[in-house]
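During the no-cost extension, the postdoctoral fellow (Dr. R.K.) reprocessed legacy sequence entries with the updated structure-token encoder. One reprocessed record is reproduced below for audit purposes.
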Amino acid sequence: MSFDTIDLLSGKIFQITWDLGRRCNYDCTYCPAHRHDNFSKHATLDQLKDNVDFLFEYTDLYMQHRHLKIANVGFTGGEPTVNPNFIPFSKYLKQEYEEKYKDKWEADFALTTNGAMGEKMGQAVMENFGHATVSYHSESDQKLKKQVKDRILQFHYQGGLHNFTVSVNVMFHAEYFDECVALCEFLKQHDVDFVPRVIGEEPDSKPTFAHKYNDDQLAWMKNYWKEKNDAMYANSAAGDVVKNKQKLGSSIGRPCCGSRDMMLFNGMEKRKSTFVDFRQFKGWQCSVNWFFLHLEQQTDQVFHHQTCQAKFDGTRGRIGKISEGKKLIEDLREQMDNGELPLIVCPKHTCGCGLCAPKSKFSNKIFEVLDNHIDIGVLNDHHRQ
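Re-encoded structure tokens follow.
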């Protein structure tokens, strides 16, 4: 089925990501240099607290105008837990929310981590966050791999005491493919949610970041997604996601990395899917800025979205500085009061994360979708012309 519109089924949520810094205790060969290092300065506790205050004030304004009920706040890196201020920071985050905002809107705090941490840190994560996504990296040594598996099981079996859940992104390294498959079987045995993730999935990924999978490996990926989607949607074509055996990435699309369900439309029919086999949306109308916000601690920048970084003028870049948060709040208040929150026209060749943001090839259809998620008063007539 071809399609011209994507709808995010869980779209009444504001999704915020906060990159807490580049420092990492891993050095994966496929991780771009701008995402990790072992020398950048850690953010101080005072800096982190100030930024929590800005983020909550901005989010509160946005939630009120959009009449939203849930904000998902995800923390990434680098590896967030290597910051020596991580535990007091996470306690402050939870405390500020519960004292000032809990009665106004629901916040779900989530952590993306490589899981290479001790039991004490694991306990702190469960106490202050609602979810952890553990990225399993097979290039690490056996001692670290055991520690990661121990944390996954700790999160899974003890998390219920803290209303905490865990899922695993298994980073499928071509040279460690059998190990990754074995880990998936291990996770199945323990009933832990997981997603097989492709390394170097962007068509323009640097050769050192991309992996070439052989035919058997491609077949495993194809069968995994077919079985998963067939099981969930018995009458859906969503499982037919691999058209050929070309290099994985440019040929088969991707799932939502947050495991969200989407609805695909083409004017005549629609289907529910966890996987989209088309990713080139340049020139499409996109509402990524209506559903996402990204903070980058290391460079003091704020973006509409972590990976696409799309701006209203058709270019890519930041929308402001975290340290100048008051101006961002004033700009948002003006947009909301005037009902003039713009849409993005996609400037990228290929959509990565952000795929699930409602988008359409045709401007009239994007508003049909947005009406399902947004209070009508937020959209003025100017938007619809």
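The chain has a mean pLDDT of 84. The chain has one domain: 11-260+288-342. The remaining legacy entries will be reprocessed before the final report is submitted.
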